[in-house]
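tl;dr need the bound structure. longer version: we got a ligand (iron/sulfur cluster) that a collaborator sent over and nobodys looked at where it sits. i said id run it. heres the input, straight from their email, havent touched it
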Amino acid sequence: VNLVEIKGVYKCYHKKAKPKEYAVYKVNLNIKKGEILGLVGESGCGKSSLAKMILKLEQPTKGKILFNEQDITDYSFSQMRKIRNRMQMVFQDSTNAFNPYYTVEQIISEPLNNYSNESEKEKEKKIVSMLEKVGLNKTYLTRYSHEMSGGQRQRIGIARALILHPEFVVCDEAVSSIDYALKKQILNLLTDLKQQFGLTYLFISHDIAAVNKICDRVVVMYLGNIVEVISNINENVQHPYTKALLAATLFPDPKKRRKNTVLFREGEEIKVPEKGCVFQNRCFYAQNICKTKQPDLMTQKDGHEVACHLYHHC
Ligand code: SF4
Ligand code: MG
């Protein structure tokens, strides 16, 4: 059963864009109930735009988004309000996401105030129980965000996202700004909570190790296009771009990483090719056909999907 269905979705931020200058291009994707779907790719690849469209924080230029089999693409603000509490988001750095003048209790009760009219006592009980679920306790109620560590703030962000018992949670770089030991804890927490609450996650990250650790499937995007969908970013990846991403994780040293010419370098601007494969300018395997024909995303026997001419004859 699919919780989210993305059907032929395009997003374009400027009106006169050429066909290929889309932030999100022709994306078809389903998110199954109960799965953790990873979304990887470098900044600017369309990950965040896609997530915002699913949450209806942005409107697709073309295409449809279904949530629980309802077409929400043209939902009005008030229609959306009824299901808004079913979808939540955990952000990268909760430091800036929180009002510095709010206590933890105020931070977590914000969504409750918007969606329920329980008494203060009931709310506090709920908040304390949620704090315990994320590994904290009621002594945190009166703390301010600057009085906590990065890991504690991340737990507060998770508590706030889950307080309304959503079905679907987008984790946008949720473990990207924390160190290794802490990252492991937060990833374990996210998987535990997923089991407990029967959640479905869209886990956006450029951290391949984190994605491999918790995701059931991983979607790879490059310049707005899905180029590969696979169970894990491992030696079975086929798309030349995914191979480059994987190779980069084997050289975590940024100095060595810079030698990986396939990937973006800081400040570099990438021109979207007018036709053909979006990755042609950086691909070591590009052939003539890659300059003229865009490869479709094709599904192989095991559900592995790849958009590359190299694999289309088999
Ligand atoms: Fe490279 Fe061609 Fe495959 Fe694109 S379609 S990734 S250019 S081989
Ligand atoms: Mg982003």
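gonna send this back to them w/ a short note. The mean pLDDT is 89.
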